[in-house]
Structures are given as structure tokens and as C-alpha cells.
Specification:
About 15% of the residues lie in helices and about 35% in strands. The chain contains eight helices and 38 strands. The strands form nine sheets. The protein has an eight-stranded parallel sheet. Helix 2 runs parallel beside helix 3 and helix 4 runs parallel beside helix 5. The radius of gyration is 26 Å and the shape is globular.
């Protein structure tokens, strides 16, 4: 029996894979005798980027040989799948140990303890099937992304004592003081155990920047399966914000006598998201946000089986574009959301209910709620998550759809009352007052007037939406250009971005904009390319992460700071005049800084005083002009991402 509490074992290396186009594997007892002719693969893995399997939808088998040391005798042994697309059945040594159906992007765990053997080699077998299904979400082939099959996210083994933590729900609450008093925090936590204990204790630690700030040891109530932590007060607390993503960590250690049964750490943040009339407030500040949607799984080398470095490369592009808000049509993995927590990106994470069924029934409701429970259970501690999404582009004008969204929102709010809950509509421009997006906390509108939605009067549509919902914020959840369905290329994409953004800026009811999309993306319904290159040309980056001209336009239009005037050289100084935007985006800038560099070497660094939306500030930087060297002015956010740059001696 190990005494370290919890051991995590990566299972990314050592898998073997074999497709099963005839679906004869179970009949041939592959789960018991092994795969007849597998190839070695590394997880995350999808077969849909392999030559000859690009368009294959069906069964694929994985197996893994696992040696369990004797000291794990008496331990609880679980396997954690971050995501398997889509249906999965798991065997251990030929014995079925669990399954997961109809939800290909949510994490799940299988307890292997009953079928695992210590001191010998064990075979873990997983059958995966990505065939279109009328029982799943997304439904059939109604989705606009790649349905890559396989073990598409990391897999790990979790080894603990028998008295182990199944799940922690962390609920931080911000309490704001008066005037200049800093905010304080209260932490609630619900802890769910696998089995009760007669005499266990829990050691509780809260950490900030790896420094302990709160500690206690408490007995667990005898025979309990759940336990609550409700009296933790922290004063003051640093608030999580996309420019200041302060994180805390809750650590719990379970002991029975001197034996450590489990140890777990969960990151969280203190922040407040509110809707006030037609405004969106973050930490008691009204904000208007600029965002862009990134479609993961689009690199043809990896597909949906992206490694951490692949995810980071695209997330850094999103930050480079000055965008602080994104949405995902389907649930994402922990590595991606952890990065957003650490680096400051607000996220709406959605149930993958895309267009069909357009009038959902009770079967869809049960499936959507099941996915919502898995999503929220796994991800509710992430401060980056601003909102949960209930679906995208159904028949929003249907009373059936509206009632469905109202009921689903009520159920989701009982799972998580601290976040916004929304439905994204592409029909609100018809009859705004009856549209299903009105059931959400925000009006979320996919605006394709001028392309998919025809040549309507944009201002007339907007005025009617505002008239029907005077006290609800509007978020444009998508706008952009889809090629080759609509012509004009990246020049027209840039024109749409600039023209529509200027229209939205005229109306204070618009709280956020999400341009669609950051990247061209692989999709099973793509009009361009074939096989693993089948795609929609919709982005400011291509599928290889190479920038198009519209990316520069997106970066510039999304910046919270502008150069109000061209920098001016004076004797021994550089005069820089900045303006803080007061339309979209609009938020206070704090702890930003500028650097003047010569030949890529920093010459001077200076902190920019706090600026409120609409402020104009002139700074005099002590630095001399050098016409012989390339000199550049760059402005940065507090966490090191650049906002704008200007060559000085051109």
C-alpha cells in the first residue's frame, strides 16, 4: 500500500491501435486475446489524420500493457480519460470494467480495482467508435468541426487509498468592501468520497503563489460520503481578471491514522461576473470585451489529438490578437482551460448541440443535461469560464426551443449558480422578442447579415433587438466570412470585421464581440479540401497557424490602448500619447508597461499609469533617438502579452 496519498501515472506512451472496419473485434474476442495486428501509437491519438483512415468512421481498438507493483495492493486504481471520441468500452484482462457513450468531449473515469492484478502484467483494452449517432450530441453529422475518432486527449492512472476523493466542487465568493477597501474572499467546498470512513481526518491548505495562507486539520464525520468546507475567510484577496489572472490552490489530504489515503490540489480564483441591465460587469467594473473563436483540432498533423504545445501555440495567437474572450462549440480539456486560467482568457464552454435537433425533445434534454453535469463537475473550478452554453443555431423562433432552453437553464443553474448560462441563436433577427436566446443571461447572436442571412438592414435589426430587450446585454457570438461559399477572400473578411465592429460600437447594449474565426478549421462539412484537409476557410490564420492580413486588423481593432498621436522625439525624450478605448473594447488598464528597444535590445521600460476608458495620457520617456538602429515602441499587458508596437524611426 503506497503512503504518498495519490499517484498519477501518465499513460500517453505505449498504446497499440488497430481499426476494425468490419466491427468483428468483440466477436473475435480481441478484448481477451489481444489485438491481432496493431501498430504502436502515442496518446492523444486519432486515426482520422492517418493515411487511408482520414474519412473512416467506425470502430477502432486500443490496448495497453500495464505492470502493477506489489505495493499497490489494497489501493484504489482508476483510469482517467480526458476525452474519447466518441463511444468507449473498457476491458481489463478481458473483463468489461466500464463504458462511456454519447459524449465524446467530456472526461470520465473507470475504477479498475476489481479486475486489476498486482505484481503481473495487465492488459487494458478500449474499443472506440466514432460512427454518426442519433443518440449522441452532436447528433448524426450535424456539427461544423472534425469528428476525429480515438483517445483524443491524455489518459492517466490514478492510484489512491480506498478512502479517496471522488470530486471537489469549489465555490469561491467575493465580498467587496467600501471605498478603497480591498475585496475579501469566502471559500465553499463540497467534497465527495468514494466510500465512507470510520475515523479519517482531512488536512486543508490554501495556497497563493505556493505560499500557505490558510491551514487546518479536521476530523471527517464518521460514515460520511460528503463533507463541506464553509467557514474559510480570506482577507484581502487578489481578484482573477484577464489582465491579472490571480490563482489560489486548495489542497486536501485524507488520512486514516498515519496512512495518507489521498491528496488532491485544485486551482481556483476569486472573481465576480454580473449582468446589470444591458451591461456586463467583471469585478464591479462594466466591461465591453473583444473576442475571437478558435476552432481546435484543425492542425492536419494532429487533428483533435492535439498535444499541449499545439494548444498553447493557438492560445498564444488568441492573446496576440488582443482578444480576451472566446467560446467553444464543444467541451474542452483541462490542459486548455488551465492555460486560460493562468494567462487570462474568458471562456464560454458549450454543450455540442449544433443545429439538430432544431426543436429538441425530452431525449435531447436528458442527454444535454448529462453532458452539462459532466462538464460542470470537471470544470466548475476554472475561473476562466464565464458562462456555460446550452446550444448553437437551433430553431430559435420555435416556442418548443424556447421552453427547452428555459428548462435547461434552470437545471444548469442548480448545478452552478455562479456563472452565466446562454443559448447562441442565428434567428434572433427574425422576431427578437420570441427568440430562444432570450432565455439566457446574455443575448447571443450569430450575425451573418450580408452573407448567410441575406441583405437586411443591420441598424434596423439591432434597434428591434434593443427595443425587445432593453435591459439585457447583447453578445455577437459570431461574425465573419465563410469561403468559398461567399467570395471576396481575406480582403472582404477584413472589411466585414472593420465595418461590423464599427456598427456594434455605436450601441452601448453590445457587451462583447466574438469574431469567427481565429483560424481556418477542419470540419466534416467543409467545402474546401479533402480527407484530413477538408476545411472551411473562415479564419485570420490558415490551418497551419500562418497569419493572413486580417489577423493584423483583428489585433489592432481589439487593442484596449491606441496611440492617440504619432510618438514624437524631443531632446533626450520620446513623447507618447495614449488613449484608452471607450467603445469596444472598453475596460480599465492597470499595470500595463511600455518598452523602447533598439536592435531588439531593451533600452528603457516604464509602467503606464492606470487609465480608465476614454482617458488620454501623455508620457515622456527618457530615451534618445538613434537613426542608425531600428527602434521600436511596444506596449504590454501586465502578464507579458503585447498590445501594440510602433516603429519609431521610419
Amino acid at each position: 500500500m503506497l503512503n504518498s496519498g495519490r499517484q498519477l501515472v501518465s499513460m500517453d506512451e505505449g498504446w497499440r491501435f488497430q481499426p476494425d472496419a468490419a466491427n468483428l473485434g468483440e466477436q473475435g474476442e480481441w478484448q481477451a486475446i489481444g489485438l491481432p495486428s496493431p501498430v504502436n501509437v502515442t496518446v492523444p491519438h486519432t486515426w482520422n489524420v492517418q493515411e487511408g483512415l482520414e474519412d473512416y468512421r467506425g470502430a477502432g481498438w486500443y490496448e495497453y500493457t500495464l505492470s502493477i507493483p506489489e505495493e499497490w495492493q489494497g489501493c484504489r486504481i482508476r483510469i482517467h480519460f480526458e476525452a474519447v471520441y466518441r463511444d468507449a468500452v473498457i476491458w481489463v484482462n478481458g473483463h468489461q470494467s466500464g463504458s462511456h457513450f454519447n459524449s465524446g468531449y467530456t472526461a470520465f473515469e473507470i475504477d479498475l480495482t476489481a479486475n486489476i492484478q498486482c505484481g503481473v502484467e495487465n492488459r487494458i483494452t478500449v474499443k472506440v467508435n466514432n460512427s454518426n449517432s442519433d443518440q449522441a450530441l452532436p447528433l448524426g453529422n450535424s456539427f461544423d468541426w472534425a469528428d476525429d475518432g480515438g483517445l483524443i486527449r491524455p489518459v492517466k492512472l490514478i492510484v489512491t487509498g480506498q478512502t479517496a476523493i471522488k470530486h471537489i466542487k469549489v465555490s469561491p465568493e467575493v465580498q467587496f468592501g467600501q471605498g478603497d477597501n480591498k475585496a475579501t474572499g469566502k471559500l465553499y467546498a463540497e467534497v465527495y468520497l468514494f466510500e465512507p470512513s470510520a475515523a479519517a481526518t482531512v488536512e486543508i491548505g490554501i495556497f497563493k503563489d505556493e505560499v500557505s495562507i490558510w491551514h487546518d486539520v479536521r476530523p471527517l464525520p464518521p460514515q460520511t460520503m460528503t463533507w463541506q468546507l464553509s467557514d474559510v475567510q480570506l482577507s484581502p484577496v487578489d481578484l482573477w481578471h484577464f489582465d491579472h489572472p490571480h490563482l489560489y490552490q486548495l489542497q486536501l489530504t485524507l488520512r486514516e491514522e498515519e496512512q495518507i489515503e489521498d491528496h488532491i490540489a485544485v486551482n481556483f480564483g476569486f472573481r465576480e461576473i454580473l449582468v446589470k441591465g444591458h451591461e456586463l460587469w467583471l469585478n464591479r467594473e462594466p466591461v465591453r470585451l473583444m473576442g475571437v473563436e478558435w476552432m481546435p483540432g484543425s492542425n492536419p498533423v494532429t487533428g483533435m489529438a492535439e498535444k499541449q504545445e499545439d494548444l498553447i501555440a493557438m492560445l498564444e495567437r488568441l492573446k496576440e490578437a488582443n482578444c480576451v474572450f472566446t467560446r467553444f462549440h464543444w467541451q474542452q480539456g483541462s490542459e486548455l482551460l488551465d492555460w486560460c486560467d493562468r494567462n487570462g482568457i474568458l471562456v464560454q464552454e458549450e454543450i455540442p448541440h449544433w443545429q439538430q435537433p432544431e426543436e429538441p425533445d425530452h431525449n435531447t434534454f436528458a442527454l444535454a443535461l448529462s453532458q452539462a453535469k459532466e462538464m460542470i463537475t470537471d470544470h466548475s473550478h476554472h475561473p476562466c469560464i464565464l458562462a456555460w452554453g446550452m446550444g448553437n443555431e437551433l430553431n430559435g423562433q420555435s416556442e418548443i426551443t424556447r421552453r427547452y432552453m428555459e428548462q435547461l437553464k434552470q437545471e444548469i443553474s442548480e448545478l452552478d449558480s455562479q456563472r452565466l448560462i446562454n443559448y447562441v441563436s442565428n434567428t434572433i433577427h427574425f422576431q427578437p422578442g420570441t427568440d430562444a436566446t432570450g432565455a439566457g443571461d446574455l443575448l447571443m447572436w450569430n450575425d451573418y447579415i450580408g452573407t448567410w442571412h441575406g441583405d437586411l438592414d443591420e441598424h434596423e435589426v439591432i434597434r428591434q433587438i434593443i427595443a425587445d430587450y432593453p435591459d439585457k446585454p447583447i453578445v455577437v457570438a459570431e461574425y465573419g466570412l465563410c469561403e468559398p461559399v461567399y467570395e471576396g477572400g481575406d480582403i472582404r473578411r477584413t472589411e466585414i470585421l472593420l465595418r461590423k465592429t464599427e456598427i456594434y460600437r455605436q450601441y452601448p447594449q453590445f457587451a462583447a464581440l466574438i469574431f469567427f474565426s481565429l483560424n481556418d478549421y477542419r470540419t466534416q462539412m467543409g467545402e474546401d479540401g479533402e480527407g484530413k484537409l477538408k476545411q472551411r476557410v473562415h479564419g485570420s490564420l490558415d490551418i497551419h497557424n500562418r497569419v493572413k492580413p486580417s489577423f493584423a486588423a483583428l489585433r489592432e481593432i481589439s487593442s484596449p490602448l491606441l496611440l492617440a498621436e504619432a510618438p514624437v522625439w524631443r531632446e533626450g525624450e520620446l513623447e507618447v500619447t495614449l488613449k484608452c478605448r471607450n467603445d469596444i473594447p472598453s475596460y480599465a488598464v492597470q499595470d500595463y508597461y511600455l518598452i523602447v528597444s533598439s536592435a531588439d535590445e531593451m533600452v528603457v521600460k516604464q509602467v503606464i499609469p492606470e487609465m480608465q476608458p476614454g482617458d488620454i495620457l501623455t508620457m515622456n520617456i527618457t530615451v534618445s533617438a538613434n537613426p542608425l538602429l531600428e527602434q521600436v515602441l511596444t506596449i504590454y499587458r501586465p502578464n507579458g502579452f503585447s498590445v501594440l508596437e510602433q516603429e519609431l524611426n521610419k
